[in-house]
Design a protein that fits this description.
CATH superfamily of the largest domain: P-loop containing nucleotide triphosphate hydrolases
Distance between the termini: 26 Å
Bound molecules: adenosine-5'-diphosphate, zinc ion
Number of domains: 4
Radius of gyration: 27 Å
Strand order of the largest sheet: 3-4-2-5-6-1-7
CATH class of the largest domain: Alpha Beta
CATH topology of the largest domain: Rossmann fold
Helix content: 40-55%
Length: 609
């Protein structure tokens, strides 16, 4: 099937790679870096590919797999992830299969038969399966086109996600000389990257780094005040969107999910303590858009490949930037606008610190504390969030991003010397023995039992801060801690203590400038959903109708909704309103297999819509 060469959309000549990209994946152009990597691998080279989540790593081995003779062996750590990728490939008409512990032995034998017969373009295998002696022996008798190791950071103990079963993959390079090996990861830090290359014996292979920026994600950090209400307000702005809410503990996951359900949100909980059948049920329902919001611990993640997650909320502060970046990266893989919201409370940082300090290995504790403080710096930043994030990941942005809370609504700095003096002298006069709550009680002049029993209502500082709210004082205290005037002593029930630098402020020798406190998650007026999705006018009703149609098909076929079509594809359909199969083929995400399978039903729906 060829498009009308005179139509405006048709390029003059397509090279073979572009042809495959279109006819199989329905994608009309490469992203920066993809082509170079793909050509390098097709030519037989090893590669180490660094790309953020959603950057489009899969094509870097899937396209070479279609352009080299033989079967590509893809190692992937999670069964669910494997299954989704294989479903998506099959939906695009590619002969792909997977081999893992979830298959019955007869299904596994069938896959092996296909492999031996050379009928598979791609075979996804679990690492423990790959390194079995029997399987390696089989591989030696078939034609392997390439090895791809996805989530390659799992091989490193330095990484945040070490998996022992990955270690033996180090033998592959030696066992199969001459067959290209591609390792792919979104891991950020240098130490882990180097370690991965060493362990996989691809030290000399070129590193392709695609840049970690995800410009379509809007980063927002809000002070955590009444988290449940903040969350509900935020989700109310995204009534039909898919989103993930990360919490630090299982108990919290369940509470938050329950609350959201009571508020009418189609939410489900997900954590490692749930039976695995229940977990897969939640994951499937999310993929099929039957559940809109998954409230989860970090256990939920590696297994989701859903490209149209529109928001990721961190209800609690994550322990490090690597994890945070990876989790927020699950939003907006399709490149359409998405949001990452972090609710940041000072208490969270204190708790995280306490947990880390309980760890046994002093080196590990030191590393983790360092990572935590980088995370806190990010949350406290008064400069462009993206610059802070990317700077941490070793990448410099030329200018402010224009798509984070700081850029969109810069914090106002004010001369906070007097406020700082009030806080510091309250800490001093109460003997450096009380936590934030009581110090603020004294400042605002609250009449509590503790106040009377300690005689703090008689202090000169009692009520000197009555002109400000508790929330405002919390923000001031937090900033003073962050700037090193105060410190919270975990060993002593988080009591606030003065640091040496506080004396200059108390004596009036040092001026303090702080960000004016604010809390609200910006409830900006959002443009109509469809317009927000594509930047061009889309018929929102038609878009929703197409989503309904997709939901029905996905449920009927038992596959995730995006395997049928992504949001981006549906938005493109609603904008272009194709009338013929040829026009339909111009839509993003429509290759020949999907044209044949879904063209008629969708064209009909568009004509009727
Ligand atoms: P990663 O594995 O790096 O997290 P994926 O390979 O899953 O990312 O790709 C993320 C999304 O981006 C998928 O929906 C994929 O179809 C889409 N994608 C990849 N490359 C392109 C491209 N060149 N143009 C448009 N979309 C793309
Ligand atoms: Zn910014």
């Amino acid at each position: 099937m060829t498009a009308d060469p005179t139509s405006a959309d048709a390029p003059a000549v397509l090279d073979p790679l572009e042809q495959t990209l279109r006819s199989v994946f329905g994608i009309h152009e490469f992203r920066p870096h993809q082509r170079v990597i793909i050509e390098h691998v097709i030519a037989g080279g090893d590669a180490f590919v660094l790309m953020p989540t959603g950057g489009g790593k899969s094509l870097c081995f899937q396209l070479p797999a279609l352009h080299r003779a033989g079967t590509a062996i893809v190692v992937s750590p999670l069964i669910s992830l494997m299954k989704d990728q294989v479903d998506a490939l099959q939906a695009n008409g590619v002969a792909a299969a997977c081999l893992n512990s979830s298959l019955s032995s007869s299904d596994a034998s069938e896959v092996l038969r296909e492999l031996r017969a050379g009928r598979l373009r791609m075979l996804y295998v679990a690492p423990e399966r790959l390194v079995m002696a029997g399987f390696l022996a089989t591989l030696r008798t078939v034609h392997v086109s390439l090895f791809a190791i996805d989530e390659a950071h799992c091989v490193s103990q330095w990484g945040h996600d070490f998996r022992p079963e990955y270690v033996q993959l180090g033998e592959l390079r030696g066992l199969f000389p001459g067959i290209p090996l591609v390792a792919l990861t979104a891991t950020a830090d240098d130490q882990t990257r180097e370690d991965v290359r060493r362990r996989l014996h691809i030290e000399t292979a070129p590193v392709f780094s695609a840049g970690f920026d995800r410009p379509n994600i809007r980063y927002t950090v809000a002070e955590k005040r009444s988290a449940p209400q903040q969350l509900e307000r935020f989700i109310a702005q995204h009534p039909t969107d898919s989103g993930i809410v990360y919490c630090l503990s299982r108990k919290r996951v369940e509470q938050v999910a329950e609350r959201l359900r009571k508020a009418g949100v189609r939410a489900a909980a997900y954590h490692a303590g749930m039976p695995s059948a229940e977990r897969s049920r939640v994951q499937d329902a999310f993929a099929r858009d039957e559940v809109h919001v998954v409230v989860a611990t970090v256990a939920f993640g590696m297994g989701i490949d859903k490209p149209d997650v529109r928001f990721v909320v961190h209800y609690d502060m994550p322990k490090n930037i690597e994890g945070y970046y990876q989790e927020t990266g699950r939003a907006g893989r399709d490149g359409l606008p998405a949001e990452a919201l972090l609710l940041f409370g000072m208490q969270d940082a204190v708790v995280a610190r306490g947990l880390i300090e309980m760890g046994g290995n002093p080196d590990q504790v030191r590393v983790e504390l360092h990572k935590l403080s980088a995370m806190t710096d990010f949350a406290e930043a008064t400069t462009c969030r993206r610059r802070v994030l990317l700077g941490y990941l070793g990448e410099q942005l030329e200018r402010d991003c224009g798509n984070c809370d700081v850029c969109l609504d810069p914090p106002e700095l004010y001369d906070a010397t007097v406020d700082a003096q009030k806080v510091l002298s309250t800490v001093y006069r109460t003997g450096e023995r009380f936590g934030v709550g009581h110090v603020i009680d004294v400042l605002v002049g609250a009449t509590t039992e503790k106040m009377a029993s300690r005689g703090h209502d008689a202090l000169s500082v009692f009520g000197v801060g009555a002109d400000r709210s508790r929330d405002e004082w919390t923000s001031v205290v937090r900033q003073l801690v962050h700037r090193g005037y105060l410190h919270q002593d975990i060993a002593e029930y988080s009591a606030l203590k003065l640091r040496p630098s506080a004396s200059g402020v108390l004596r009036g020798e040092v001026e303090v400038s702080l960000a004016r406190p604010r809390a609200r998650v910006r409830a900006e007026k959002r443009p109509a959903r469809s317009v927000a999705l594509t930047g061009s006018a889309v018929d929102a009703d038609l878009f929703e109708q197409l989503r309904e149609l997709r939901r029905g098909i996905a449920t009927e076929q038992g596959v995730p909704a995006y395997v049928v079509f992504t949001d981006r594809a549906l938005a493109d359909m609603a904008a272009r309103r194709p009338r013929t199969l040829v026009e339909f083929l111009q839509v993003h995400g429509v290759g020949e297999a999907k044209l044949e399978r879904y063209g008629d039903v969708f064209l009909e729906a568009i004509a009727a819509g």
